[in-house]
Each structure stands twice: as C-alpha cells, then as structure tokens.
Amino acid sequence: MNSELTQKSCADFAQVLASSAPVPGGGGAAALTGALGAALGSMVANLTVGRKVYAQYEEDLRSILERGEALRTGLLALVERDAAGFTPLARAYAIPKDDPARPETLEAATLAACEAPLEMMRLCGQAIQLLEELLEKGSVTLVSDVGCGALCCGAALESAGMNIFVNTRTLRDRQAASRLDAQTDVLLREYLPRARQVADEVTRRVRREG
Predict the structure, then answer these.
(1) Quick one: pLDDT at residue 1?
(2) Domain residues for 109?
(3) Which of 58, 93, 107, 197 has its CA 20 to 30 A from that of 151?
(4) pLDDT of residue 3
(5) Is 75 inside any structural domain?
(6) Residue 72: inside a domain, yes or no?
(7) What is the number of structural domains in the chain?
(8) 107, part of any domain
(9) Which residues contact 77 (CB under 8 A, 6 or more apart)?
(10) Please, which pLDDT band fits residue 209 given cuts at 50, 70 and 90?
C-alpha cells in the first residue's frame, strides 16, 4: 500500500499522532487498531492451517485467511481515507463565520467525514465475526491472541462510533444525522457485545474458570 501514514514506522506514526498535526487522530488510530485486531486473527489462522489436528477446519481456515487479509488491508486504507475526510472539515471550520458559503461547506464536509468511520465499523464487525469463528477453529495455544484481536476490534468499533457521533451532533440536517446515528447504534449493539463475549470466553479459558 503506497500511502504516507500507513508507510510510517510504528514509532513515527505514534509521534505524528502525538503531535499538533490535524491527522491522524482518533479515526486513524481506530482504523489502525482494527487492522491490528484483524491481523491477529490472520496470525492465528496462519499458525493453525495445515496442522493435522485441525484438518477438519482446513477449508474454513483458508477462507478466514482470505477474508482476514481483505479486512486488514481495508482497515489500513481507512487510516488514509479518514485523514482525507477530516482535512476538508478542518478547513471548513477555519472559514470565517460571516462567510455565507461556510454553513453549506461545513455541512458537506461533516457528512463526508462520517463515511470512513462508518466503514471502519462495518469492517470491524466482520473481523469480530472471524474472531468468533477462530475461537472454535483456531489453535488452542493461540486463544489469547484471538481474545486480544477481539478487544482491538471492539475498541476500534467503539472509537469509530464516537467519531461519527461527534460529527452528527453538529449537522443542520437532523434527518441525515439521525440516519447516521441509527446506523452507528445498530453496529454497536450488534458487534460490541460479541467482541466482549469472545474476550470474556478467552479469559475464562486461560484462567481455567468454570
């Protein structure tokens, strides 16, 4: 992927995130966290596929690898897409308040800024589904990685939702705001408990509870 932010080292990305630069921000951090969660799932699948004891899941694991790779790369792409969506919004806020073009420009930029985090949520939900599957089909020695992946994807999901809500509250078009809020709430209600359930089950297993 030939993109500026995602080509940085971990240290450099964290440094620019900590700086006064407008991007990356919470959205970029959420996308990266989701990508790491998906990557953990792929790691589990890669280390399980081909092992005789899991032969019954071979076809499923190869499917997980294919889907996981698409999710990882998709979430990484959203680091850049989120930055591209936020930049026009920052510029719109800088327009003088007495400029008659400001309200319309700000409204359009705010709506556009919601697109990337909503897609992040969708992809994180799909990654959580894969991690649920890996909880049963992945190597038992890697179960903690499944749990960590679920926590990463859950955190990314919730963080992306916050980035939508912070924008919809300022929209003048309240119908559009309500639609976006409703879509966000559906994804949160569906997938956040599922991510938590995977993590809780992993904790139970590794601590040998119940």
Answers:
(1) 38
(2) 23-206
(3) 58
(4) 56
(5) yes
(6) yes
(7) 1
(8) yes
(9) 1, 3, 6
(10) low
Residues 15-24: tens digit of each pLDDT: 999 999 989 9
Half-sphere exposure of 107 (CA within 13 A, CB side): 12
CB 128 within 8 A of CB 153: yes
pLDDT at 2: 38
> Is 128:154 a contact under the CB 8 Å cutoff?
yes
pLDDT digit string, tens, across residues 136-168: 999 999 999 999 999 999 999 999 999 999 999
CATH number at residue 201: 1.20.120.680
Report if residue 145 sits inside a domain: yes
The residue whose two tokens read 């599922």 is 194
Burial of 136 (0-12, 13-18, 19+ CB in 10 A): exposed
* Tens-digit pLDDT profile for residues 85-113: 999 999 999 999 999 999 999 999 999 99
